[in-house]
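Annotated sample (chain length 335).
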Amino acid sequence: MPRRRGRLVLLTGLALVGCGPEVPHGGVVKSAADADKPNEEVSSKQRRPPTPLDLIPGDLDVVVRVDLSKVRDSLGGDASELLLARAADVASTAGLVRKALAQAEVVWLGMRMADVEHGDRVMVVRSIKQRGHQEPVVAPDPIAWTKESTAFGDITRYLAKSPPTRDGTERIFTFDDRTAIFVSPVESYSVERVLERGPDADRGQPAAKGLVSIDYRTGKLSAAHENAYPSLAALVAGVVRVRATVDVVADQLELDARIRCKTNTAAAKVSRFLETIVGATARRPRYADLLKELKIERSESVVTIAWPLPRAVVAALLVDSTGPVPPPSPLPVAP
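Output written by the structure step:
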C-alpha cells in the first residue's frame, strides 16, 4: 500500500495524535453467508429513511469532509486535483470511484486511524448539480455488479460479483443521481447493520462548513504503537475528540481546531506537547513565518488551535506534499 496515504491524514491535521484503537472491524460480524444476505426488515426504531451520512458506521473513528467546489475556488485546480488523487488512492481504485470523484462537489471519507493503510473505509460522494439532465454520479456495469433493492425505495444496492481486495469496493449504495456510497469489504456488514437498524449514535459528524472539516474520536493506541511511542500513547489516552475545520477567513485560510480531553490535566499535557512541537518546528527557517500566527490556548479540558495561512501557502503545501510521512517522534510528555 502506498505510504503517501498517511499524508492525507497529516494534511488534515490528524497526525497530531497518531493512531486510533484497534477494534474488531465492523463490530461483531455474522458469517460470510449471512453478511451477504442482510435482513431487509426495518426495525421499529428506524423512524425515517437514512441519509447518506447515516451509513458511515461508528467503528470508523475519523471522518473527513472535503468541499471540493470551495477548494477549487479558494486554492485553484492543482490543489483540488491533488486532493481528488489522494482520495482515489485511499479508495484504491477503480474506474467507478475515480469517475465519481471527478464530478464531485463534496466528499465524506470515513476511516479507521489505527489501520488507515489497509484501506477500510466508507466514502460518500455527492456530485455537482447539473443544469438540465443530471448524469448519474455512478453507473455500475451489470456484468460486474448485481443490482438489488433495499427496504428503502430510494436506496439501491450494488454488490461486486468478484471478491475485491481489502481496499477495494464491495458494495455501492445510490440514493439518487447525485449521491453514491462506496464501501470496502471489511465495512460491508457495518453499513448493512446501519441501514437496517438506524445510524450509530457515536458516528463521526464533521461540521458541514469550510473547505475541509474533521471529526476524530480518539482512543487507545495499538500495542505496537504504545511500545514504540509511550509518550504519545499517554497523550492520546487523555484525548476524547478532535474536531477541526479549515475555512476562508478574510483573504486567507484559517485552521480552527478543538481538542476535547478527559481532564484538565490531560489538556495541559496536550497543550505543552503542541507548544513543544511548534517551538521545535519554528526553529527551521522554512516554517518560522508560517507558524508565527499559530495560537494554542487551553480552557479547562479543551485545547483550541487557531492558525491563519495565506491561500497560496496552503496550496503550495498540498502540491508539495508527495513524500512519505515520517513516524512521530517520541517526545517526552510533561507530568
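Annotation: The two ends are 37 Å apart (CA to CA).
Annotation: The first helix runs from residue 5 to 11.
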